[in-house]
Design a protein that fits this description.
Layout (H helix, E strand, L loop, with lengths): L19 H21 L6 H14 L20 H14 L1 H12 L2 H6 L2 H12 L5 E4 L15 E5 L2 E12 L6 E7 L11 E7 L5 E6 L7 E11 L4 E2 L5 H37 L1 E2 L2 E2 L4 H29 L5 H26 L9 H10 L8 H13 L1
Parallel strand pairs: 1-4
Antiparallel strand pairs: 2-3, 3-7, 4-5, 5-8, 6-7, 9-10
Helix pairs in contact: 1-3, 2-4, 3-4, 3-7, 4-7, 7-8, 7-9, 7-10, 8-9, 9-10, 9-11
The structure holds flavin-adenine dinucleotide.
Length: 392
């Protein structure tokens, strides 16, 4: 279902499998949701206020039902990747901040679905779906980015629970979140001395939790989060002691392919802006779209774009069938984010001076795509995963 005037290649049905009627209904709802937002003209300069507003609207439109299981107000028995991808592709086409507001509700609550007690799930997940609780996922640290085992945040035993000490950085929704999932180093393995990690749920107003905002190149609420002896009762532990990283990795397995889908949305927008501009901008007495050099350049990125869609929806379908392998999502994220960057760069170039002018669509897209090649595993880390599938 494309918007009026979009090139055919921006249609989202390429490679999508699943319940066709349900997905068509979802796309229709997304189309009107995004159109309504476009006319609402929400100011993204106050990142916290706009995140709250976006989460409120996403909940009212029923879109947050896709981030939780049916037992707690969600749309399906288990969280499914295909609808998450369709939603992210639509939302990011409109705004990266809107897409972030959506996905953090899932990335920040799914570890509770995966490893929380029934009491904690019942307490949190319905509030995530209704938009009352805004979520964050706190894994990265100053000394632990691509290599999360370098994590220094400690969980020290305190009665039947733990106390957290340490600092996380680049945490999306830091400061606006009501709910944090936090990963920390626990007791060393007695035999090999290997570090063991735990996963914990912490409310945003926990004593000892403080936030220092950070700023990145596109609107995105983000910051450092400090834990100065934050007390976590036993009931707020996720999964078994020492098995927290399994939860982190299982969570990233669900959401990694959806980063590729967000990149598809940005590329969709870039491609339709490029085609519309080249069709109307006249130089040398004719529209630029009559220049074969430009036509070929756009043909290249359009082909990449469809290939990226096939990879993303193939990986999402495999996950929903229970047949996912790590390399599928890695290839989808790698190719979709890298090719979206090329498509957006082509949009900037096609617009000439307007392409780098603040407020023009290509300029916004150029800033918004960049972080997608870095978070949830950089492009290089995706290559490590793909190479492991090839070489062992
Ligand atoms: C906008 C944004 C939002 C984010 N949100 C969150 C969040 O909500 N929660 C969270 O926990 N984290 C979040 N992050 C952090 C993100 O996941 C990390 O930045 C990312 O994992 C990379 O870690 P790093 O920045 O420490 O880079 P580093 O790990 O220091 O890597 C630096 C460079 O070296 C390369 N590199 C590293 N190791 C290898 C290797 N073995 N072989 C080849 N190349 C290698 C990397 O690919 C990269 O290019 C966010 C980051 C950004 C930018």
């Amino acid at each position: 279902m494309s918007m009026v005037g979009d090139p055919k290649v921006t249609r989202r049905d390429v490679g999508v499998t699943g319940d066709a009627a349900e997905l068509a209904d979802l796309e229709e709802r997304l189309e009107s949701f995004v159109a309504e937002l476009a006319s609402a003209g929400i100011d993204e300069s106050d990142e916290h206020a706009c995140t709250r507003e976006y989460v409120r609207r996403l909940a009212a439109a029923g879109l947050l039902r896709y981030v939780a299981p049916a037992a707690h107000g969600g749309a399906h028995d288990q969280v499914r990747s295909t609808p998450l991808c369709i939603i992210r592709q639509w939302l990011s086409r409109h705004s990266g901040a809107l897409d972030t507001a959506f996905v953090m509700q899932g990335l920040g609550s799914n570890p509770v679905t995966l490893g929380g007690s029934e009491a904690l799930r019942s307490q949190l997940l319905p509030r995530v779906v209704s938009g009352e609780a805004i979520c964050a996922f706190a894994l990265t640290e100053p000394e632990a980015g691509s290599d999360v085992s370098g994590m220094q945040t400690r969980a020290e035993v305190d009665g039947d629970g733990v106390r957290l000490h340490g600092e996380k950085c680049w945490i999306s929704n830091a400061g606006v979140a009501d709910s944090y999932v936090v990963f920390a180093r626990e007791a060393e393995d007695a035999e090999g001395g290997k570090p063991r990690f735990g996963a914990f749920w912490v409310p945003g107003d926990a004593p000892g939790l403080s936030v220092e905002p950070m700023q990145v190149i596109a609107p995105h609420p983000i910051g450092k989060v400090r834990f100065d002896g934050v007390r976590v009762p036993a009931g707020h532990r996720l999964g078994e002691p020492g098995k927290g990283l399994r939860i982190a990795l299982a969570n990233l397995d669900v959401f990694r392919v959806t980063v590729g889908a967000a990149a598809l949305g940005l590329a969709d927008r870039a491609l339709s802006e490029t085609v519309a501009h080249l069709n109307t901008r006249v130089q040398f007495g004719k529209p630029l779209s009559k220049q074969q050099g430009l036509r070929f350049a756009v043909a290249d990125v359009a082909t990449d774009h469809v290939a990226a869609q096939l990879l993303v929806y193939r990986a999402a379908a495999a996950r929903d069938r229970g047949a996912a392998t790590p390399d599928q999502a890695a290839m989808a994220k790698l190719f979709a984010t890298e090719s979206a960057q090329r498509t957006i760069d082509r949009a900037v170039q096609s617009f000439g001076g307007r392409g780098v002018t603040v407020g023009e669509a290509p300029e916004r897209l150029y800033r918004e795509i960049r972080a997608l090649r870095i978070y949830e595993g950089t492009s290089e880390i995706q290559k490590l995963v793909i190479a492991r599938a090839l070489f062992g």
